[in-house]
Predict the 3D structure of the following.
Amino acid sequence: MQIYLTDVENLINFLRLSEENQKKILKRPKFPLLIPYELAKKIKKNDLNDPILRQYVPLIEEEKFKENYLKDPLQEEKFSNEKFIKKYKNRALLLCTSNCFVHCRYCFRKFLKKVDNKTFENELKLLEEDKTINEIILSGGDPLTLPNKRLSDLFEKFEGMEHIKTIRFHTKALTTFPSRFDTQFFEILKKSKKQIIFVFHINHQSEIDDHAIELIEKLKSFNFLLFNQAVLLKNVNDNSQILEDLFKKLVKIGIVPYYLHNLDKVEGSSHFEVSKERGKRIMKELLENLPGYMVPRYVEEIPFEKSKTPIM
Ligand SMILES: *Cc1c(COP(=O)(O)O)cnc(C)c1O
Ligand code: SF4
């Protein structure tokens, strides 16, 4: 049984795209197609406006050249010592893999050097030595693409470091590959003495299905903190009603909206751009319509700043 859609022709058939619509699909994308069937099932057939399709299916607009759209917009390679990024105080991010469950067309790390399958000896040494770090953020790629054995080895190392109080996952698995949350993975989490935080990455409420809700119930029962970061994306979620629906739904199931990111200007993603002016108008409407805890911080990432920069 096939788990992922990786071939554009198969995708076109799967989505039953009309000939007219097929012309708008990019047949040989530089950043390869990758969508789990589990996720592709949630896409409406023959509808190029589907918010899931727009996030994960390569469209011909990706080939449009636009100035100031770069290969490494956050200049992360400058901050990384091996695959360890310490840009902010007290917390460090470990790019533990380049693998993902899905390829998001707007991803700002899509052109970065690949992380090999490795044991992270150097990174763990740096982490061990730097006692100012009390939170380790597992990112990537998607850290949950690592097999349980490797995660459990990493966790064991963290458990031995007194100064590490919190382990945070940045993952899309909840809505793109929920079956990854298997019994063994829950065992690793349960055994840990550290505080565990999940930051999911959900941009539209159509991504949240019953499977995700079931998992959230389970994660909540262990008292993990659950947050969401979204990216403001043109023709996906760039109006206040769509975001309002998303944030209400998240809070209803127990996830706190944490960040709304402005798009990072990475090559091939200019068709997702929403101006900051428009973003601010959307935020204003959200603030008027929702209780404060449902409104995430609207931020952007500026290289060399000491935190994400609030836009509003
Ligand atoms: C976003 C980010 C973090 C986490 O920042 P928080 O504001 O704590 O969520 C840490 N390191 C890097 C490199 C980041 O990009
Ligand atoms: S899952 Fe994350 S790292 Fe992977 S393509 Fe999407 S945004 Fe990029």
Notes: Residues 4-63 form one domain. The radius of gyration is 19 Å. Residues 240-253 form the longest helix (14 residues).
